[in-house]
Protein 1
Amino acid sequence: MAPTSRILFLVSLTLALATAPAAARSKQIHLHFYMHDITGGPGQTAVQLVKSPGPAHPSPYMPGAHFGDTTVIDDALTEGPDAASRAVGRAQGSYMLAGLKEPALMVSMNVALTGGAYNGSTIAVVGRDDVSAAVRELAVTGGTGAFRKATGHVLWRTAKVESRDHIVLELDVYATVPGAAAASDGQRQAGVVNT
Ligand SMILES: *[C@@H]1O[C@H](CO)[C@@H](O)[C@H](O)[C@H]1NC(C)=O
């Protein structure tokens, strides 16, 4: 390449990089909300599906529980710790007591957002919830809508125990969404195949 054309090549390469569409850049999203796990009484949102025949659980955190106990949830998500504060979505999924000795739940749930800018989008969350730990970290394994191809993590802590049947968790969701994932949404152009 002659010196002049090499310079032109570098200039056009720099321009191409500088003008890369904003949509190609990944996006960081932080969400903060509260989750109400109500395992009995009026307004119940969590139902035990499996009362396990497994061994009794030794942890003081799990009185009366058995290894393998499994609960299905459709828990309300709210902006503030009060159940009456603005609803932002539902946590739909299950948790299973998967520690023989440790009070560790295997959690698998979809966070279905129903309010604000992310209404209609979902976040897939999977992870280990050792309820004896002050802060637990779970994985964001994907999502839909604004969270398509999301990766990240969730930090959650027990915010308050309203009653024996009503636990309030505080969640911080940190997700990275690749720009290309959102850009490909409905924008298939002639001659361009978005995979
Ligand atoms: C969320 O989306 C649904 C379905 O499109 C709509 O009915 C509802 O009013 C929306 N909620 C908010 C808070 O925007």
Protein 2
Amino acid sequence: MKVPMLDLEAQYEPIKDDILTAMKEVFESKRFINGPQISELEKSVAEYCHCKHAIGVSSGTDALIISLMALNLQEGDEVITTPFTFFATAGSIFRVGAKPVFVDINPKTYNINPDLIEEKVTKKTKAIIPVHLFGQCAEMDAINEIAQKYGIAVIEDAAQAIGAEYKGKRAGSLGDMGCFSFFPSKNLGCCGDGGIVTTNNEELAERLRVLRQHGSKPKYYHKIIGGNFRLDTIQAAVLLVKFPLLDNWHEERQKNAEYYNERLKDSVITPYVESYNRMIYNQYTLRTPHRDELQEYLNESQIGNAIYYPVPLHLQDCFSYLGYQKGDLPESEKAAMEVLSIPIYSELIDEQQDYIIEKIKKVTD
Ligand SMILES: *Cc1c(COP(=O)(O)O)cnc(C)c1O
């Protein structure tokens, strides 16, 4: 049996006609830029994320960049984040001229450890970017408490967490701004690149909208410098077709996770979810000291898998100028050696899961 890491064909098949109709409408309207589907999507996402505003942008990475731009950072300002995340989280901090400051993770949830944040706050700290990794929210109460104490902004990197909840509140509504990605492998993916920023702050929303179009308001008049950060109409049209199915997809992922949990709990460390979190399982990430052996065997058995993430960001070559050494953030470094993500997509069937479980147990039991 062959099981892919993600089966976009299985997702596409039942909604093909609706997707093609929606795309055709865009072509026939010729409103490729700023078509009415954009604000329709923004309204739906804002509501879904319990936020007043949502601003469609060109990718999850650009959502992070434009959010940082909205804070008006100066050269040398510092932004605290986790090293155990996708590159874009820290890459965008560098790209707005600021300095990433890394804080180690909680080894159970893989999210930033709030107990280690305060000692890293300086006069230059302007923002904290917690990442809701794999679809589980970070410890937002503790993070917001520190942010409020020092007057620091909080930008949620919710790229993997649309619909995730923390104590009944939705990802994207837990900080000053929430950044989402519609990259095809996220729970809600478009047919290319896309993203969105959520906020409950009127002023920030207005700033984000202006920054998205070169800082222009009215057209051809620029008080601030922005960029081209627009979401394409065609992406919004595709997302509007998929959006009503999202909660169902989340539920299927949660069922698949439970199926794995029950059968793998004595063989590997299964994902730990805080009781007050709604985890949407963008990834199902297990942990074992036999990771490399397991990965090799899964590859041989044609089972899709991935290491998110093999090198924590503080040890990436491009960040060597920051001066971190091996051993500085031990939990992130250890996790990078032991984690493995396996297929969790909604369309996965029991026989596929049984096959994956059987192969995993061959290595670990
Ligand atoms: C996917 C992802 C991003 C970037 O999103 P893109 O749409 O690919 O630019 C940022 N942060 C995290 C945690 C991600 O998983």
